[in-house]
């Protein structure tokens, strides 16, 4: 069956507009088709309903109408659809709502499947992909496909494999060549986990980013690499651990850990990995035997590595006076 208009999926409400559309379609819409009309079903004593877990209802707007498959237990909206729950808005070319029977004889939506130009917006953060699955039991949305990216007022996060949004835990996960970029710096890793926190105005924003696997932090003045990393956005301090290398120009420092100040773009190699706690740029406790190593390339502008004076041109080799 097909119905048009809007549908409200509520925990305590009914799918009233969808049910009305279904009744009207059964009585008039199908009779206008070229094929022989199907018998009009007897009026139902109860209005069909789709309930959803959670305290906020979901409103689905489908200008092209709905396809309601009772045996398959799915309602499909095609031709562009929007699902809204609180401040979260999911739009796609096709949106399918899967439901299951409840103990009281009703229906309960447990999964939303979106395909085609998917956009998931929550406040001032917007995620893009070509496919998304929203698990309502876990309050987790997973976006896959081409063009995966998450944009905020200050950062852009991209990924190759998937973007995940864990609503209850207030965190986002980017998997596969993940990149979080700002105008002045960027952090890249196999996986990025972004923790969200609310500010004084109760607005949700990025608070910390944990990076794992092939971590690279790039600032305007240097590049720092390591196995794992943690970046605190409030203090703009990052901590890298595991096979750390910090490169500035041709000079390189190696060690077990590094504290990176993203405000100044300066890193400090640490002789050991600090204990758990807030990320700071302070040196760690005394070393436990692991050394910090450095490679420094002498200044080659003048002879003997001595910097040239402004306007001075180095004399060719062999032309020096005795």
TrEMBL record:
<protein>
    <recommendedName>
        <fullName>Organic solvent tolerance-like N-terminal domain-containing protein</fullName>
    </recommendedName>
</protein>
<feature type="domain" description="Organic solvent tolerance-like N-terminal">
    <location>
        <begin position="66"/>
        <end position="159"/>
    </location>
</feature>
<dbReference type="GO" id="GO:0009279">
    <property type="term" value="C:cell outer membrane"/>
</dbReference>
<dbReference type="GO" id="GO:0015920">
    <property type="term" value="P:lipopolysaccharide transport"/>
</dbReference>
<dbReference type="InterPro" id="IPR005653">
    <property type="entry name" value="OstA-like_N"/>
</dbReference>
<dbReference type="Pfam" id="PF03968">
    <property type="entry name" value="LptD_N"/>
</dbReference>
<dbReference type="GO" id="GO:0017089">
    <property type="term" value="F:glycolipid transfer activity"/>
</dbReference>
<keyword id="KW-0732">Signal</keyword>
<dbReference type="InterPro" id="IPR052037">
    <property type="entry name" value="LPS_export_LptA"/>
</dbReference>
<feature type="domain" description="Organic solvent tolerance-like N-terminal">
    <location>
        <begin position="161"/>
        <end position="263"/>
    </location>
</feature>
<dbReference type="GO" id="GO:0030288">
    <property type="term" value="C:outer membrane-bounded periplasmic space"/>
</dbReference>
<feature type="signal peptide">
    <location>
        <begin position="1"/>
        <end position="31"/>
    </location>
</feature>
<feature type="region of interest" description="Disordered">
    <location>
        <begin position="273"/>
        <end position="322"/>
    </location>
</feature>
């Amino acid at each position: 069956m097909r119905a048009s208009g809007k549908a409200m999926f509520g925990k305590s409400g009914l799918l009233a507009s969808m049910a009305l559309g279904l009744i009207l379609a059964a009585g008039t819409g199908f009779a206008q088709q070229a094929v022989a009309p199907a018998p009009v079903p007897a009026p139902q004593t109860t209005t069909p309903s789709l309930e959803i877990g959670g305290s906020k209802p979901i409103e689905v707007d489908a200008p092209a109408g709905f396809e309601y498959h009772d045996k398959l237990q799915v309602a499909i909206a095609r031709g562009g659809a929007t699902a809204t729950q609180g401040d979260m808005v999911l739009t796609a070319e096709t949106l399918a709502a899967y439901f299951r029977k409840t103990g009281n004889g009703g229906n309960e939506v447990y999964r939303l499947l979106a395909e085609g130009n998917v956009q998931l917006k929550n406040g001032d953060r917007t995620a893009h992909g070509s496919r998304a699955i929203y698990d309502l039991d876990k309050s987790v949305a997973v976006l896959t496909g081409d063009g995966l990216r998450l944009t905020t007022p200050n950062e852009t996060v991209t990924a190759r494999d998937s973007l995940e949004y864990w609503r209850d835990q207030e965190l986002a996960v980017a998997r596969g060549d993940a990149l979080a970029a700002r105008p002045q710096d960027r952090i890249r890793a196999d996986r990025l986990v972004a923790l969200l926190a609310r500010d004084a105005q109760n607005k949700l924003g990025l608070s910390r980013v944990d990076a794992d696997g092939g971590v690279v932090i790039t600032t305007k003045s240097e590049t720092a690499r390591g196995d794992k990393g943690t970046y605190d956005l409030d203090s703009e301090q990052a901590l890298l651990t595991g096979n750390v290398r910090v490169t500035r120009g041709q000079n390189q420092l190696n060690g077990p850990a590094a504290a990176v100040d993203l405000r100044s773009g300066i890193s400090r190699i640490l002789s050991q990995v600090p204990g758990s706690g807030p990320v700071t740029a302070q040196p760690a406790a005394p070393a436990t035997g692991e050394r910090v190593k450095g490679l420094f390339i002498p200044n080659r502008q003048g002879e003997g590595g001595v910097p040239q004076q402004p306007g001075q041109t180095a004399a060719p080799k062999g032309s020096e006076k005795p």
